[in-house]
Structure formats: C-alpha cells, structure tokens
Write a structure and sequence with these properties.
The complex is a heterodimer of chains A (296) and B (131). By secondary structure, chain A is an alpha/beta fold. Chain A has twelve helices and five strands. Classes of the chains: A alpha/beta (296), B alpha/beta (131). Chains A and B meet through helix 9 and helix 10 of A and helix 3 of B.
Chain lengths: 296, 131
C-alpha cells in the first residue's frame, strides 16, 4: 500500500508554499497571470490532488475519484490557453509540483531507499498523467475551434443570390472538394426550386485552381441543375484557368462559359427574354441599369 | 392492376408519376406510353415527377429510354419537377439523362413543348394560317 496519499495529506501546506516559492518565472508568467490567481490555482490543484490520491487509486485517472482533479485541470488549461499560455507552459505548471512533492517524500522516507524510490515513481507517474490531461484538453479545445471554423467557412462560402426574377448566381470562393460540392449542389438546387429559377450562374472567380476533380464536381452540379430544368452558366474563368482547363483536356463543350459575371448575367437576361436599356444619354454620369456600366 | 394514367392534351401527352415507381410499373409505363404516342400521333410527352422522391438506376434508365423511344416515334419528351435529392442521386449514379429535356414545373415544361412543337392544337386550326 502506497504511503503517498498520507504523505500528501500531511504536508499539503508545506508543498503548497514550497511550490509557489520555487516556481520559476518561466512557469509563473506574471505578465499573463496575476500572482493571486496563481496562488488560488495552486491551492485548488493541490487539494484536488490530495483528494484524488486519498481514493487510493494512484494509477488510473479514469477512476471517478479523479474527475474533480481532471475537470479542474481542464478549466485551468482552457483559461490559460485563452490568456495566451502555450500548452508547454501549462503542462510545466503542473509538472513543477514534482519537486516539492519529492522533497516531502524524501523527508519522510529518507532512510529507506527502496520505499523512497517506489513512492517517487508513483508520484511522478501520477503527476505526468495530470500534466498530460492539460495538454490533451488544450488540443481538444483547439480541434473544436478548427472544426467550428471549418463549418463556418463552408457555410459562408456558398451563398446563393438571386440576381433577377428567375436568375440565380452562385459565387464559389475557395477550392471545391467533394464535401463542398455536396453543400453547393444542395443549396443551389434548393434555391432553384424555391425561387423557380431557370438560369443559374456559377461564378468561379474565387476558385484558386481548377483541376480535373474540381471540373468534375462543377459538371456534376451543372448536370443536377439541368435535370431539374435549370440551365447553368459558368462565369469568372480567369485566363490561367482557361489554359489549365484546355491543357488538362477537360471537356466543357456542353456548358455555356463566360469570362465575366456581367457577360453571364446579360446572357441570362437575354435567355429569359429581357434586355437592359440605358435610360440616360451615354455621356451623363447617371447610373445606367446596363450591366456594362458597372463593369469598370 | 396498378397503372400510371396517361392524359392527352391536344397533341401532347401528360404523365404524372404520383406513386413510388417499381420496376414492373416502369416497364408497363413504357409499353403504355409508346402505344399512346402512336395511337394519338402525339408530338410531345411531358412527364411530371415532382412527387417522385426515390429513384434508382433502373428508373433513371427508364426515363432516358422513354425519351429515346418517343424520339424514334417523333415526339419530344420533357421531364419536369425533379426534386433536388433525386437530381443529386441521378448525378451520383452517373446518369445525366443526356437526351432528355427538363423543366422546373409543368407550366414551364408546357411552354418548352410549345416552343419546340409550336401550338399544341397542332395543325388543325392555327398552324396553317401561321406558316
């Protein structure tokens, strides 16, 4: 039976004061964390450590007795991450409790080398695991953030806008992968039904590169729209992209392509039997409704 | 026995698929439709699939086949009202229904047929004076 819980309990106050005293400024980071908060954190961590150790399970942190300690460390890790601590610094904070703990163990078991080694080993394993908890929770919160941002980007970058009665535009920004194509397709087809549109303009000005896969995704979207009875026009093809498309041998002959969104829009208007007419004479500064007027 | 009704409107035929298609129904429809086209000398076929929510490759092929058969009998086929999910499924199955014309709803499908085939009262009253 390990004597560690007992030693920790007896010397809790001593460990706490030594811990705070010996903590290096690199771990302390007074610029990010006021001393007072550090003191209360140390106290909480230590009492959670003692409480967990008292359960008798010094090996498995999965034991519910350690839930409190883990929760505490996770919240400390989260608040420190927000304050600008690196994960290393947060882990070092927990690891720095080793020295005062080892000190009290040595004081108690100084004569008995075997026992001393066994207790120190138990303590070091335990504290390492606790330090890992902080790193892990740091990682988890980071990953959640990234996942959320990815979702945001996905939603942000696929708006379907109505340009005119029966004319939709879908400006695509960023690379088209399978997951995004799905979202693009669904939102475009949904909008086609909703607005009863016969023409959809897919603007790829914001797509950095077009390879065979992207082209295939585009063609899929266009085919699906056609099946529903809407015609698609691709616009915003930059000169380099036109070159790549030809070099890669991508066949876009079945698709209407236009260089600029304005060209595509005027074609769409024409297809729906409309025309845009200038209402003021050519020379005046008045804003004509003509798409060409806005082009420059 | 279950059957999909085929309505005649002038020289066009109107088919509304309102039940989930199973394979026998599909082949039955092919038979009936080709028969009707030849009986009524129809020049256009409009298939409304707006209430069709599930398709498989067989039904997709059937639509393409019907269009091809109708073309052989000199009638144009327009498929209207396809649901987004159905369109995505067909594309993922690799069926683009290349020879089939499509429209958003029955109304625009009819307009499309008029456009292709002229007035749907066909040659009886108007067309001669128009040309």
């Amino acid at each position: 039976m390990s004597r560690l819980p007992e030693i920790l309990r007896q010397h809790e106050g001593e460990i706490n004061s030594n811990w705070l005293r010996d903590m290096t400024s690199a771990v302390r980071r007074n610029d990010l964390l006021p001393d007072k908060q550090l003191q209360s954190e140390c106290k909480e961590v230590l009492s959670a450590l003692v409480e967990g150790a008292n359960s008798g399970d010094l090996v498995r942190l999965e034991n519910p007795a350690w839930d409190n300690a883990k929760e505490l460390l996770q919240s400390i890790s989260a608040s420190r991450a927000q304050a600008g601590f690196s994960p290393t610094e947060t882990a070092s904070f927990v690891l720095s409790v080793k020295k005062p703990v080892f000190d009290v163990i040595r004081k108690d078991l100084g004569g008995k080398a075997d026992e001393l080694f066994a207790e120190i080993w138990t303590a070091t394993m335990l504290i390492d695991k606790l330090a890992l908890v902080t790193s892990e929770s740091f990682q988890v919160s980071r990953e959640q953030l990234i996942a959320r941002q990815q979702q945001d980007v996905l939603e942000l970058s696929t708006p379907v806008v109505k340009l005119w009665d029966g004319i939709l535009a879908l400006p695509i920004i960023g690379t088209l992968d399978s997951a995004r194509t799905q979202v693009v397709m669904e939102s475009l087809l949904g909008a086609v039904v909703q607005t009863n549109s016969r023409v959809a303009i897919i603007d790829i000005t914001g797509v950095p590169t077009v390879d065979t896969l992207v082209a295939q995704h585009l063609l899929k979207t266009i085919t699906a729209a056609r099946l529903m009875g809407a015609e698609c026009i691709i616009s915003g093809i930059r000169p380099q992209i036109a070159q790549t498309i030809v070099h890669l041998g991508i066949d876009l002959s079945q698709v209407i392509t236009k260089a600029k969104l304005s060209d595509a829009f005027s074609l769409a208007l024409q297809k729906s039997g409309r025309a845009v007419v200038r209402t003021t004479p050519e020379k005046s500064v008045g804003i004509g409704k003509q798409p060409q007027a806005n082009k420059e | 026995m279950e059957k999909i009704p085929i309505l005649r409107m002038g020289s066009f035929l109107l088919v509304t698929i309102q039940v989930d298609m199973h394979d026998r129904l599909a082949t039955q429809l092919q038979d009936d439709l080709t028969q009707s086209i030849s009986d009524h000398e129809a020049t256009g076929v409009l298939i409304d699939i707006s209430s069709l929510e599930i398709v498989d490759s067989f039904i997709g092929r059937m639509l393409a086949n019907i269009a091809a058969m109708a073309r052989v009998l000199d009638a144009e086929t327009v498929v209207v009202g396809m649901q987004p999910a159905v369109a995505i499924t067909l594309v993922e199955l690799g069926m683009s229904l290349a020879g089939v014309r499509t429209a958003l709803n029955v109304e625009s499908g009819m307009e499309l047929l008029y456009e292709i085939r002229g007035n749907f009262h066909s040659d009886q009253d108007h067309e001669i004076s128009q040309t």
